[in-house]
Amino acid sequence: MNRESQLRLQRYLDDELAPAESREIAELLVHSEEAKALYTELQAIKDLVRGNELEHKLTESREFYWSKIAREIDRNQPAQTPAGRIRDFSWLRRWVLPFGGVAALAVLLAIALQVPFTLRSGLRLAEIPDIETTADGTSLISFRSESEGISVVWVDSH
Amino acid sequence: MIKQSTLRFPFLLLLSLSWAAMGFGLAETRAGDLKLKTRLIWGTDEEKPKDKKLKEVENKLADKLHRFYKWTNYFEVSSTNVVLAANAPQKVAMSRKCELELKRVDDATIELKLVGEGKHVKTVRHPVKLLVQGEYFIFGGDDKEKYNDAWFVVISLATP
Question: Do B138 and A133 touch (CB under 8 A)?
C-alpha cells in the first residue's frame, strides 16, 4: 500500500470519505490482507485513545472560567494599541518631520535673504524699504542710524 | 490776587502750541502738501575751488557726513525746494546727469526715485514722519569721473 492508500484507509475509518470512495476501500479490505491489518491496527488505536482520554475538570464554574479568559483578552487589548501608535509615530517621524524640517529651513533662508546686508553684518541700523532697483553693475547698501537721524542708500558702481 | 504760577501754565501751553503750529506749518502748507529741500553735495579732500559757486554745507548735516564718511570737505553744489502735494509727483534735476523723482504715496510715505545718466538706479519708500522729525534721507555714491570723490543727494524737510 502506498501512503495515499493508507491515508484513505484512515479517512474511511473516520467516516470522512465519499460513498464511492468508501465502496472502493471496503472492496480493498476484502481482498487485501495488508489493508485489512492496517485497518485493524488503526481501529485499535482509535478505540484506545477514545477510551483513555484524560478528562479536564474545571475547578470553577464554566461561566467564571470563560469570564477569566475574556478579562485576560481585554487586559491585553490596550497593550497592543500603543504599539500601533508607535508605528504611526514612526511613519510621521520618517516622512513628515524631515519634510517639515526642510520647509522650516526654506522659510528661514527666505527670511534671511530679505534681511538687508547691514543687519546681517551686525550693524544696528534699521531697514530702508526699497521697492525697485534696476541699475546694472551697481551694488547698493541701505542703512539707517536712528541715533544720528540719517538714512542712506549708498550706490557703489565700481 | 492771582498767583504767578497760575499764569505761567497757560502761557507755556500757548507757547508750545505756537511752536508746534509753526513746525507743522513749515512742513505742511496744505493738508497733504510737504515742503522738502533737495541738495546735491560733493564730498572731496580738495580745497574749495575758487572758480565754482559752491556753498558750505550747514553744520548739522556736515557733522553727520563727517561722522559717517571719510571726506574732508562737503560742498553744496545745488539746492532745490520742493512742495510735494498728493497726486502730484515732482522731478528735480540735481545735475546734468542726476535726477530725483519725488511722489507722495500716502499721508505717511513718500517715494524717492533716483535716476542717473538716464537710468533708473533705485526707488525707495520713506516715512514722512522721519523727515518731519528732522532726519535726512541720503542717496550717495562714488564719483565715477573723479577718483576718491563722492556725491550725495540729500532730502530733508525745508527750513525757512
Answer: no
Angle at B83 between CA B81 and CA B88, to 5 degrees: 130
Instruction: Look at A153 and B119 and tell me if their CB atoms are within 8 Å.
Output: no
Residues of chain B neighbouring A140 (CB-CB closer than 8 A): 122
Q: How far is A127 from chain B (nearest CA, A)?
A: 10
The H or E element containing residue A95 is: none
C-alpha–C-alpha distance, residues A114 and A37, integer Å? 97
Q: How far is B29 from chain A (nearest CA, A)?
A: 24
Label residue A141 exposed, middle or buried (CB < 10 Å: 0-12, 13-18, 19+). Answer: middle
The reported pTM is 0.51
Q: What is the pLDDT along chain A (158 residues), one digit of tens a residue?
A: 788 888 988 999 888 888 988 998 999 899 899 999 999 999 998 888 877 777 777 766 777 788 888 888 888 776 555 555 555 666 677 777 788 888 899 888 877 765 544 344 334 444 556 666 666 667 788 888 888 899 999 887 76
C-alpha cell at A37: 491489518
Cell of B88: 502730484
